[in-house]
Design goal:
By secondary structure, this protein is of the alpha/beta class. Helix content is about 35%, strand content about 15%. It binds iron/sulfur cluster.
Length: about 325
Amino acid sequence: MRDAWRDPVQLCRALSLPARLEPAARQAARLFPLFAPREYVARMRPGDPLDPLLRQVLPLAQELEPAPGYSTDPVGDRAATRQPGLLQKYDSRVLLLLTGACAVHCRYCFRRHFPYSQTPHGLEAWEGALDQIAADRSIDEVILSGGDPLTLADSQLAELARQLAAIPHLRRLRIHTRLPVMIPARVNASLLGWLTATRLTPLVVIHANHPQEIDDAVATALGRLVDRGIVLLNQSVLLAGVNDQLEVLVELSRRLVDLRVMPYYLHQLDRVSGAAHFEVPLARGVQLIQQMRRQLPGYAVPRYVRERAGAPSKEPLY
Ligand code: SF4
């Protein structure tokens, strides 16, 4: 992560992009900094401002335009907070927000305005959340989220997993992460070690939006997880100019399934301020899913869903 691109002007120049993109990129990055790992940028096409991977990370002028109906907390994270760092939106599952750090800054992120500085950091600080989980027998699954939980050290994560496994009513440990796609070397022996040592059933939900993201190194990293018996799911966000084309979504699903990763969700964009230019109309999303169903086996078609603040589950859109 130390080697990641952080300066939008340097990134534009390294990719031979038109200089006209630079002033707005600099300005938009002041609101939400650019952060893109070199491994990921290496999968982009130089000289192409419309590259689907680039679009996910390059700050653009459109982010600065006001958009009615878009907010800083589009899915009600604040209202779902049981205590700092512990969120509950749905029955039987809770989310631990362990860190604000990510392996990439996705321009459309629904938590791009989240006040991470107020969330507890470190094992001692998480004790209160763990006490709440231990006291609530209705919870059987903990989701490690953030930010990206795999930006933390394995020693810390292993200890957290040990403490969670000591809570008798917990059954599953789910991890939401973009790291295996961004920096596949993160799937190392020590991660696999603690993830497979816990008595909790581990599930890893990765986040890939486009087949171009999954190169050989990513495929190998995903294979290492699946080979160790870890259930792997993928969630994508439907993004204008990134994956709102049938061939792209079909190829993404095929690539994932070939790698034994199940396409889980295709999310309608959460209406977060600064991301309006990524929204795909609902009717187009429905049409894409209908067309995907004709080309793919049922298990390879993700569920097209939207998250609504305060709703008891994700809302299926088709
Ligand atoms: S990795 Fe996830 S949490 Fe981090 S910026 Fe991207 S979408 Fe947001």
